[in-house]
Write a structure and sequence with these properties.
- By secondary structure, the chain is an all-alpha fold.
- The protein has a domain of 94 residues.
- It has 31 helices and two strands.
- A two-stranded antiparallel ribbon has the order 1-2.
- α20 packs antiparallel against α21, α24 packs parallel to α27 and α29 packs across α30.
- It is elongated, with a radius of gyration of 29 Å.
């Protein structure tokens, strides 16, 4: 996140210190994360994690309209053992017995009974690799139910089946492939042993091949991206998995799904966007992804989504795609060299979409609105063009109206306004758009961070434009600074005192003379 800090050392002028933070899945290790805003950022990251996709997926069986309730499908040790016996002794109707077993395995206690029964997994793998197509499908269904188990010892028991699940990803049946993918995704999130074996067995090239061969089948693309996201979220992903992914064709496949073409569907795009986020926030420079135009691709989709939002055309669940796209653009723009930023972000209308998204989610999802203005902050921190676009496209008044909102939105808005004010030529326009009355209001707030940031913005305005001090005095700003000087916290007092002594001393002296002469 872009953090603007102004510091006073003795009688030196305040120095603008710009620090760009990554919005990651876990606490950052960089020096910037030790700043005082670390706790606020941790809370925001937790809010983002709460909106991420679930850790496991259970793919419902479309063939089951109404679950049957009978002795053969009810959970319990007797039924698990009975069904295994029927399958083991080549009784007829193996397909029906496997279907019944998959229903029984939905019960967590039955899952434990199954893996503890001798040769149960060996039997299931045998049916998985047999010649009967329906038996193979039902065997995968049983494995899928086991992969969704809450018990940590169930996933490792499925290890013997993983090579076959990988092999079947290249099969002709898309339904079968989809089921194998979700099963692998569930298993790799639960077991380090399974994950290491899958990596050794080639799951990364298998997923890349699957996405390439099935690129027109959205259900399979979504399932493959889900499995990849499970791998990318593991604790050892940065060291073991992400380098392999970046060297593969997977990033280009992920980016190809992020398009405004409605034929690609929302769900696959959501999965692919999260995968890109995990890649971006775990890498320092993101050179590979920037070279593949990831920043321009994600920002273009955001422009489309913001345009749809402006026109009132919203799709249910659209925010699930907005979340990861914002994080991709925010973090990529943060890691992109300043001189190359506009080569990747040539459309300044991105700021229009970001403002539209912030307004759209302001009341329903304030954390998402804050995420949106965080991206806007990163874009304006080092770009005169984006600052100019906010003024030219008349977006600043809308930002100023957001200053009364809490939950971190107002502080982020102040940072954006500080970015604009730091470009000296824009200060007069900011005054004309009513920023000074807004600052007078924020200086009265009880939120210490808001007051400090307001003083920072006021300082930049005064330094860059002499007319600002006069206008601020006319609005009654001197009394606000004096009240902060005597009643505020230490950091606030330091800033207000500096402003009064260095930029408002003549106004104070003139005011005192007027008071003495007043009869």
């Amino acid at each position: 996140m872009e953090v603007l800090q102004l510091q006073v050392t003795g009688h030196q002028m305040w120095r603008l210190n710009k620090v760009r933070h990554k919005a990651g899945r876990q606490g950052g290790s960089s020096e910037e994360l030790r700043l005082k805003r670390r706790e606020n950022e941790r809370a925001l990251r937790q809010a983002r994690r709460d909106r991420q996709l679930v850790s496991k997926r259970l793919l419902l069986n479309e063939d089951e309209e109404q679950p049957e309730v009978s002795m053969d499908t009810a959970p319990g040790q007797h039924n698990v053992v009975s069904l295994l016996y029927k399958l083991q002794h080549n009784r007829p109707e193996k397909d029906a017995h496997l279907k019944a077993l998959s229903k029984v395995l939905r019960d967590p206690s039955s899952q434990l009974i199954f893996i503890k029964h001798e040769n149960s997994m060996h039997l299931l793998v045998g049916l998985l690799t047999g010649s009967d197509t329906q038996c193979r499908l039902q065997a995968v269904r049983c494995l899928h139910e086991l992969s969704h188990s809450p018990h940590t010892n169930v996933a490792p028991a499925c290890l013997p089946a993983t090579p076959y699940l990988l092999t079947y990803l290249s099969g002709p049946s898309t339904k079968f492939t989809e089921l194998c993918l979700y099963t692998l995704g569930n298993l790799c999130s639960d077991s380090d042993v399974i994950r290491e074996n899958l990596l050794a067995q080639g799951i990364i090239p298998a997923l890349a091949s699957c996405m390439e061969n099935q690129r027109h089948n959205l259900a399979v693309v979504e399932a493959a991206a889900f499995t990849l996201s499970q791998l990318l979220q593991t604790t050892d992903a940065a060291e073991k998995i992400i380098p392999m992914v970046l060297k593969s064709s997977l990033p280009s496949h992920l980016l190809s799904v992020l398009t405004s073409d409605p034929q690609f569907g929302l769900a696959p795009a959501i999965e692919c966007a999260w995968c890109l986020h995990y890649l971006i926030c775990s890498t320092e420079d993101n050179k590979e992804l920037l070279a593949q135009h990831a920043l321009s691709q994600c920002s273009s989709l955001l422009v489309s989504l913001g345009g749809a939002m402006t026109e009132g055309n919203t799709e249910e669940g659209l925010e699930l795609l907005v979340w990861p796209l914002l994080r991709c653009v925010g973090n990529l723009s943060s890691s992109c060299p300043v001189e190359d930023l506009h080569a990747h972000l040539s459309d300044v209308h991105l700021v229009v979409s970001l403002c539209a998204l912030a307004q759209a989610y302001l009341h329903s999802q304030p954390a998402l609105a804050r995420e949106t203005v965080w991206v806007l902050n990163n874009l304006t921190a080092h770009s005169t063009e984006f600052c100019s676009a906010l003024l030219t496209l008349n977006l600043v008044p809308g930002l100023i109206q957001l200053l009364p909102f809490s939950q971190g939105i107002n502080t982020m808005i102040l940072r954006i306004l500080a970015n604009i004010a730091h470009k000296k030529k824009f200060c007069v326009q900011l005054v004309q758009l009513g920023l000074l009355p807004a600052l007078c209001a924020t200086l009265k707030m009880a939120d210490q961070e808001m007051v400090v940031l307001s003083l920072d913005v006021l300082f930049m305005m005064i330094v860059n434009s002499p007319m600002v001090a006069e206008e601020f005095v006319r609005l009654g700003g001197l009394s606000l600074l004096e009240a902060i000087q005597y009643n505020g916290a230490a950091e606030m007092r330091q800033r207000s005192t500096y402003l009064l002594e260095k930029h408002f001393l003549s106004y104070q002296q003139h005011l005192r003379v007027d008071n003495i002469q007043d009869p």
